[in-house]
Amino acid sequence: MSDGSLDTSFDGDGKVVTALRPHTRGNAMAIQANGKIVVAGETYASDLGYGFALTRYTTRAAHWTRSFGGDGEVRTNIGFYDGATAVAIQGDGKIVATGWGGQYTPESSDFALVRYHAISGNAAPATNRGSAAPAK
């Protein structure tokens, strides 16, 4: 259908909500060449602060709990207050997320860039954590 109605082949009702942990939100998404959906944003853990958060879904919205980061979520801390605001998929399948990374507030944060491997369904940082770290 092209009438704007929800696609019920996507999670049965056309929508999915994933509770990763409190204070989590998706800010951007990208589609991999195989149709899988990557969502990037931020998540909070009291001992680590805010960090980049990525999760991936199949074309039917099934959350990949084993093949993406081991538990369906990839979290990367750069400082204490970090978050991804954009995500892209490279031609080789690597996932690149950008946003902010810093110590205590958005105002004291710096530009941050992280690249992840996405080989055989796994995701792990492909670069050192750090503010404005070059993706190798």
Question: How would you concisely characterize the structure shown here?
Answer:
The chain is 0% helix and 42% strand. The protein is built from no helices and 8 strands. The model is unreliable at 127-136 (pLDDT under 50).
What does this molecule look like?
Helix content is 0%, strand content 42%. The protein is mainly β and 136 residues long. It has one domain: Thrombin, subunit H, CATH 2.40.10. Strand 6 and strand 7 form a beta hairpin. The C terminus is likely disordered.
Number of structurally distinct domains: 1
What is the overall number of helices? 0
Backbone CA Rg: 15 Å
The CATH topology turns out to be Thrombin, subunit H
Please describe the biggest sheet, giving its number of strands, its sense, and whether it closes into a barrel: 4 strands, antiparallel
Unreliable stretches: 127-136
Distance between the termini: 43 Å
What is the helix fraction of residues, given as a range? under 10%
Order of helices and strands: EEEEEEEE
